From TrEMBL:
It comes from the Bacteria. Belongs to the cytochrome P450 family. CDD domains: CYP107-like (cd11029). It comes from Streptomyces kunmingensis. PROSITE patterns: CYTOCHROME_P450. Gene3D superfamilies: Cytochrome P450 (1.10.630.10). The keyword Nucleotide-binding does not apply. Pfam families: p450. This is Cytochrome P450.
Amino acid sequence: MHAGAEGTTAPERLDDSFFQDPQGLFARLRSSSPVTPVITTEGVRVWLVTRYEDVRAALADPRVAKDWVAHMTPEDFDINVDPVQAYLDQHMLNLDPPDHTRLRRLVVKAFTPRRVAALRPRISAVTDELLDAMADGPAQTELIEAFAFPLSVTVICELIGIPVGDRASFRAWSETLLSSRGTRKEARAAAVAMYEYFTGLVTQRRTQPADDLLSALIAARDSGDSLSEHELLSMMFLLLVAGHETMLNLITNGTLALLTHPGELKRLRDDPALLPSAVEELLRYANPLNHATERFTLEPVTIGGVTVPAKEWVMLASASANWDPTRFPDADRLDVDRDRSGHLGFGHGIHYCLGAPLARLEGEIAFGSLLARFPELRLAVPESVLRWRPSSLIHGLEGLPVRLR
């Protein structure tokens, strides 16, 4: 990437200390350098934006763009972009209008509040099955393995039309592609495996269509409804990875937040009507993402009084914005009944999460059912021993051991 204007001090590095405590760095930068270059674990320089007002404005600024294939050249990078990963990455989340608008229109119907509400019985049934198995098992369990992962991946797989039996493969591929520690060879192998899997599945579903999103997108593609084969495959990649990763980590992070705030946990247990509000607060307080997916400047853009040169990568720290005390008083405190309107847990602007209605419904069912089934739920280990995944983008625990009774 372009070197751009150099600061007077060496940029911060997003190392393991960042993965384990991103809010610590965000708080420091909001006060001292709210728009500043940082170095990722891959050695790439990006501009990190940490204040609410700046992050929200940049998320809606068309000069801070997504479609790097259309606007960037090899000279704009200081790393090699793997062609397979680049192929899968060309989905609507990494596109600008008009392509983004066209692709979003094809899938948004699957995530309308009415369509999502129809999924409630199935989500509740899957949740109850998992909780039944936990209740029949040992008093201590690993919440990610027993509940958060199987629930999140089952819901999104059934919605899209992907065999749930392949979920272990999805998880391995996803974790590899989102890790900031893996090698380029490992990432490429995961991308190739995912590409080959989706190609085979699309071929199969063409001859055996079903009542699912994948079959609907294949029909749109084959009827000439402005959807290319490339776009179809990358759409599957986006929906699967984003759909299960965000919910897995919302359930896990949110459970940890509640268990470490017993007063708020009691409020929620005593008044289940607070569940919708609590889910929004958990999205603000314990969001699954540290930052929005990367953007770059099409031209020099002034953000928070700092001019970022053209063709520079920009990391908009939505998790930091959600903890900005100028927007949310006592932002570092969990409050299941706070006025959290305007939080950036689902982003902002044209890339606002189209899965938000599904995430809200799934969160309400997951947290409500888990807390009701296990009134003695508590951490099985000290919070200090928990580790966060080594990912700049994803804020998610490696494990969450809990005691059920």
